[in-house]
Amino acid sequence: MGSELINAMQISASGMRAQGTRIRVITENVANANTTGQTPGSDPYRRQTISFKNELDRDIGVRKVEVNKIGEDNETEFSLKYIPDHPAANEEGYVKMPNVQTLIEMMDIREAQRSYEANLGMIEQSRSMVVRTIDLLRQ
Amino acid sequence: MTTENIALFKALGSKMNFLNQRQRVISQNIANTDTPGFQPKDLKEVDFGNVLKKVTNSGKSTVRLETTDAGHMPPPGDVRIDDPRKQKQTYELAPAGNAVIMEEQLIKSGQTVMDYNLMTNLYQKNISMIKTALGRQN
Fold first, then answer.
1. Taking a C-beta distance cutoff of 8 angstroms, is the pair A81, A98 a contact?
2. CB interface of A with B, residues 98-117, below 8 Å
3. A95 touches chain B (CB under 8 A)
4. Best residue in A17, A115, A119, A128 to probe B by mutation, most B CBs within 10 Å?
5. CA A34 – CA A105 distance, rounded (Å)
6. pTM for the full model?
7. Closest CA to B100 of B21, B42, B22, B46
8. Cα atoms in the 13 Å half-sphere on the side-chain side of A116
């Protein structure tokens, strides 16, 4: 009977792990929001994206969350900034800046945080149910 | 004799089992709030009042089939908890095809925990009633 609740906790833990990875990826993006290339005309840092998938854990027979893929954002264009004396500046003096938009990253990190907290709350609740069950023994 | 043989305890036990499974399903939904294309699931409500009635009425038939495998059919009067089903009606769908509403799931989980507490309280009360009948001071 208790194993269902333990499984529930493991599912929530997998969700927290996935959101943790997401927060790491977003932090990398924000930290590299100004990382340019080194040689003239070279590409700067490319924004990373992350997606999740639902995967069956055969050991315990439940469907957990896992990180599907950490990919690169090839859709958004790099912006150009006029810095003539920069090592990565092209002939016209423009430097390619990363396609990271900190506003979007901040929104993503909030969403990740919210999901993380929800999972944490679920662990707390499952735990309280286990505690109630054990309390039946002690009167 | 175990408390399992008492109809009320049996009903309480099956309801607790149901709530455990429901909690697991809700955990799964919440863990997948950001998984593309994920549809939330829920367990079908079981009418435990009906179950209790059946259990109490069939008090005379003490010989019953034992279910030892998940594939076995439960004897009449027993609770069968169906596999979680996809929720047909959801409030909204995210662009990535995810239909989990966090608030809805949290309310459900809160409900599950409250019901569970109710069950454990009832269990304790009944045990102490039996103890009183046995003449032990508690």
1. no
2. 111-112, 114-115
3. no
4. A115
5. 14
6. 0.80
7. B42
8. 15
- Cβ neighbour number for residue A57 with a 10 Å cutoff: 14
The residue type at B34 = D
Cα B109 to chain centroid distance, Å, stands at 12
d(CA A8, CA A2): 10
Distance of alpha carbon B122 from alpha carbon B101, whole angstroms? 32
Sequence ranges of the domains in chain B: 3-134
For residue A51, CA distances in Å to A112, B34, B38, B117, B133 come to 12, 8, 12, 37, 60
**Would you write out chain A's pLDDT as a tens digit for each of its 139 residues?**
458 889 999 999 999 999 999 999 999 999 999 998 888 888 899 999 999 998 888 887 788 888 998 999 888 889 899 988 988 888 888 999 999 999 999 999 999 999 999 999 999 999 999 999 998 888 6
B99 touches chain A (CB under 8 A): no
Per the structure block, which two tokens stand in for A28? Answer: 């990398």
pLDDT tens for B102-125 read 888 999 999 999 999 999 999 999
CB A129 within 8 A of CB B23: yes
Please judge whether B138 and A133 are an interchain contact, meaning their C-beta atoms are less than 8 angstroms apart.
no
Q: How do the residues of chain B divide into helix, strand and coil, expressed in percent and rounded to 5?
A: 50, 5, 45
Which chain A residues contact residue B137 at CB under 8 A?
Answer: none
- CA–CA distance, B123 with B117 (Å, rounded to integer): 10
This complex has an ipTM of 0.80
